[in-house]
Design brief:
- This protein is 63% helix and 0% strand.
- The protein is mostly helical and 188 residues long.
- The chain folds into two domains: 50 residues, Single alpha-helices involved in coiled-coils or other helix-helix interfaces (Up-down Bundle); 122 residues, AhpD-like (Up-down Bundle), CATH 1.20.1290.10.
- The two termini are 14 Å apart.
Length: 188
């Protein structure tokens, strides 16, 4: 089976070197997802651009993490569930009960966040074919039609990283190790 390289700013293809160096400088370490994506600089830059745009949505930081975690759990991405559990807790300040519920695929204690998680799970599970009750419940929770599409953007962003992590078999960085996660069932 092919093994992928987790690049450093020095080993990466030329078009990815500056980006990896900036990420490492900003975070103090290089997330293994980005080190792997550097193999294809266009994939790396596309993921970072999508992430940046998702960060500009009308969804709050905790709401963004709900979308990213819910997507990663449905897609069974061990790396992203660990990373976004860490980010949800330490950056977005999402409460521990909500993080646990997301990781376990359960209902969240906050009704609005639960509506967001349920809608996100439906978007992923139904491959975007979400209408009727699921869409109505999301809008009834106070979200806008624009936020419907912002959830789709978040799902798109995370699906890129989730699938890349599956192919790359990305190991979890030590910074996220305390939030390591295993799916309830491992798919082939």
């Amino acid at each position: 089976m092919a093994k992928f390289t987790l690049h450093t700013p020095e080993s990466a293809p030329e078009a990815a070197r500056e980006t990896l160096a900036k990420v490492q400088e900003n975070y103090g370490f290089l997330p293994n997802l980005l080190a792997g994506l550097a193999e294809a600089p266009t994939a790396l830059h596309s993921y970072l651009a999508l992430s940046e745009q998702f960060g500009k949505t009308a969804l709050s930081a905790p709401e963004q993490q709900v979308v990213l975690l819910a997507t990663s759990v449905i897609n069974e991405c061990q790396f992203c569930v660990a990373a976004h559990s860490y980010l949800a807790r330490n950056v977005a300040k999402l409460d521990e009960a909500s993080i646990k519920a997301l990781r376990d695929g359960n209902a969240l204690p906050d009704a609005r966040l639960n509506a967001l998680a349920r809608f996100t799970r439906a978007v992923v599970s139904e491959r975007g074919w979400v209408n009727g009750p699921a869409l109505d419940a999301f809008l009834a929770a106070g979200f806008s039609k624009a936020q419907v599409l912002e959830v789709v953007l978040g799902v798109t962003t995370k699906t890129l990283s989730n699938y890349a992590n599956h192919v790359l078999e990305t190991p979890t960085n030590q910074q996220f190790a305390a939030d390591a996660w295993q799916p309830k069932r491992k798919t082939a």
